[in-house]
Amino acid sequence: MKSLNLSRIPVSLSSISRLPTINLSILETLLHGCKSSKEFPQIHAQMTTSGFVNDTFAASRLLSYSSEAPFLDLDYSRRLLFQIQHPNCFSWNTLMRAHSRRGSPHWALLLYRLMLGSDLVPDNHTCPILLQASSLRLGGLEGKQVHAQACKFGFGSDVYVVNTLVNMYSVCGDLEDARKVFDFSPVLDSVSWNSILAAYVQAGDVELAVEIFDRMPERNTIAENSMIVLFGRCKRVSDARKVFDGMGVRDVVTWTAMISCYEQNWMFKEALEVFFEMNREGVWLDEIVMVSVLAACAHLGILKEGELVHGLIIRAGLDAYVNLHNALIHLYSSCEDIIAARRLFDSAGIVDQISWNSMISGYVKCGLVEEARKYFDAMPQKDVVSWSTMISGYSQHDQFSETLELFNEMQMESIRPDETTLVGVITACARLSALEQGKWVHAYVRKNNFNINIFLGTTLVDMYMKCGCVETALTVFDEMQEREINKMLDEMNRRLKMEGYEPDTSDVAFDIEEEEKETSLYRHSEKLAIAFGLINTSPPEPIRIMKNLRICSDCHAAAKIISRAFKREILIRDRRLFHHFEEGVCSCADYW
User: Does the keyword Repeat belong to this entry (predicted)?
Assistant: First the structure.
């Protein structure tokens, strides 16, 4: 048949009914111009009237268009399939794929059964579609059945099928079978290696991921990006950086992964250095990397750099993103520019709970607790972060009665507190010497199976010590890593004395003997947390500590010496500043 110039065919949707016949060229023109659910049935009707619907290829093209058109329901496509006299494998695959993509994987599996009932044999494209449907349903058993069918029809070694099998088993949590498929496949391509690597990355299995990565015949950007993400999650920052530095080609995902790696591990200066290098190289900036960079600026409290990033966001046209708007509010409030934060909040087209919580946190940080309470009370809906931020705010600013009152309200609202809430409440009990309420909170922690980690545990120890219950404090301490922490505390104390350290008891307000004051300092929450960090982390990873109150002068002096004696970076964020201890020096220059 002579080919036609489609641009010169005088066909419009309004003239369909006057067409004496229809062919493939005209069909393509009509489908190209079809934009609504009213127009498509006219094309379908003309094909039926002319008998052209009995042409398998033409009918498949019509079905393909109907299954992809967003304005057509898949019910229509199913009816169309059943009208085709002899639907081929391509037609069945098209409809199964459409159901899987549109979130109806059960229909994809049902259509497969109907296809087998029509005596059609699936091809190597059918099995991957069904395996993807099984993945969406997290149907490991269904996936195994499809796997058996693939082997039965001779597609078990097809690399396209193998890759989808690896993905299906890993999504369903069956890494053992995913590895078996990979190991026994006679043919592997780059997608195969990326798929099994992605499975181990998703599972957080560093050893097996490294094994696969080292064995890859040819590393690619996707694999290298995956390893940076995994190393970042597992706090192996130096390994992530080695991968980053060794890459021949970097894309925006690479840069974002490296920045996120630093940001997740509290290495905020390094995150910013990578970001500015990324910007100098002209790499396209997206909202994901901007959120990480703004978080780094907020943690460091560097408003100037944050404003520079804000300018880049505006120039890139990204300022409409809600998550970026929230990150900017958090930045300005963290840097105590609450006016700028409020201006952003008021000008936002959409605000969510994160926006409200950021404003509450900002006012708390600026010491404007009553303003924070106004935002808290005005929230359309509060979550646990809202309650925790407000309760911690009262506790941080010595409004301990209000802390306990708001916690009682939270209980009446049946909101389950988190660790931050409980730390704030226990701190208030300690400052008010409200031993009975503190005991009640401790009992609540036990009853509701909260994990008494280093932060919660050290706060409980502080509370009992400040209330004069030394024995109970020691009991709580024993519930933590007693032997290891005690040994580390002794080692810390030994090295402190070698460096000429003298305990500073001036901040110990409780009326006890000097020797008991020194014992109290020995188990201050900061020292317990540092001991825990020395036990549970390895260089060059910094020790990171969050504190609800201002660090005392004794712990500040001790942290400086420990950073030098143990050759470790120590990062302590108290209610006022971010303290970076390294080689015996603090970033605050001893002014806080």
Answer: yes
